[in-house]
Input
Amino acid sequence: MGAVYTYTPMGPDDSEFRRQTNPSLRAKAGPGTTTRQTATTTDPYASFERSLTQSGDAALAKQIEDMKNAFASLVGGVNVGGGGMSSSDALARDRFNYERAQDAAAAQKQRDVIAAYQNLLSGGGYRSGADRMIDLITQQAGVSEGNVNKAYQDALANIAAGFTTARDLTGQGYSALEQYLTQNPNNPFAGVQVSAGTAPDAMEQILSAYGVSADPVRAQVAAEQAAAEQGAAGFQNLLSTLGGVAQQSDASRLAEMMMAQNLAQTTLGQQRFGYESQASQAQAQALAQIQAQLAQARLAQEAAAEERRTQIEDTLAGAGADPTAVKDNEDAGGTGGGTGETGGTGAKPQKPIDALKERAATANPDLKKKINQFVKANPNAGIKKIEKAFPKIASKIK
Amino acid sequence: MAYDPSLFESRRRGYTENYGATAAASQYARTLAQQRGARARQQALRQYETAQPQLVRAYSRRNLVSPNVRSGIFSRAMQEFASERARGLSEFDLAQQEQMRGFDLEDARLLQQYRSALGDLEAEKAREIADAARQLFAFRAGAM
Output
């Protein structure tokens, strides 16, 4: 083989490998002479490698080394009759190194996964999605409740306005009737004139002319007049009776008018209460339905979060990690950090200790003092430690 | 059902026209009755006026009456004649008065009926307004 292979040796094994595969170097070097020394003086890539190493471009140097190794493996496979490390040994060595690196990377990856899962558990990141969903559900429920309450208030306003309008219209209608009945009393019998008429003359002049007394005739005429007056009185009594009936009829009509007006107004009031009751009932039903849906949706989210937690704990247990060790990490202040990077779910949730600080702002002076002391003593306390000290507050900031 | 005042005006007009027609008919019947009664009374009066001289002449022919004679028979006959005349005229007058009172009564009854119908109409109008107001309220409250 007339070809001269020149490359930068990386170690004693590689130097031997290079010497075995480079005839010119083999000729120049005597017995016992290392090819590294010769190569240093003759190989132009050696100075390049040194300059790379000195310049700190380790990545590029690593690439070159990999290329050299691959090339040496190729050449070593051809030079099967030579001495020293065979190409198969080099291959085995490289394979071993490769597999060891792969194992190390896999172990590191598993450790990273376990750490990520532990962060999820200790930081509560496993339930961050559920918490956000619950927040959204709660917000939507608030909006829905607001809409229901607004609809109820609108309904009440409409009912009140409708009632006022109806009451005024009804009052106007019956006021007009009352005015008509007052101005038009219906008793035409009161206006009938009753008279007995004039009695016929008794022919007194004629009778006296013949010397005849008119007394019997006068008595007769008087009797006739009396009968006429009695008839007139009787008719007057009849008219008075009819007039009384007409007056009663008028009074009855006025009373009927007032009763009808009262009934109409009362009915309107009943209608109003009925409509308001219906609106209130509808509001209560709508709110109850919203609450039921809210509770159901929350429960579903909590169940999903719990399932997720169980899966993570199972995964940790399966990987040989102790899920109970999470408690120590949790109280070490690792809360709330697992959502952005490991969970991939978006914004970081608030740390429990920060939430506790916020609660202190609105707490009474005694509680505020206790919280401040706790925060000062435990600046990185997790939810478990907070729960021991302030169980009520912890239940709200979980 | 919406409140429609024009329907009430139509009915009011009908009531008024009907009352006007019946009242006019009654008034016309009254006038005719008055005229009939007056004529009959005048006729009776003329008959009495005609009969009275005949009665005197009949007693005069029998010398029961003269400027110097005043018999009791004649006097009684004259008194009976005068009484009969007064009774007859009174009966005419009473009959006429009773007939007129019947018309008065009928007129008053017609007027009362008319006013009562108008009162019922106004009451019905008020009820219908109240019903319309209730329905309006129901619509406003969203119950219909």
Remarks:
- The first helix of chain B runs from residue 5 to 61.
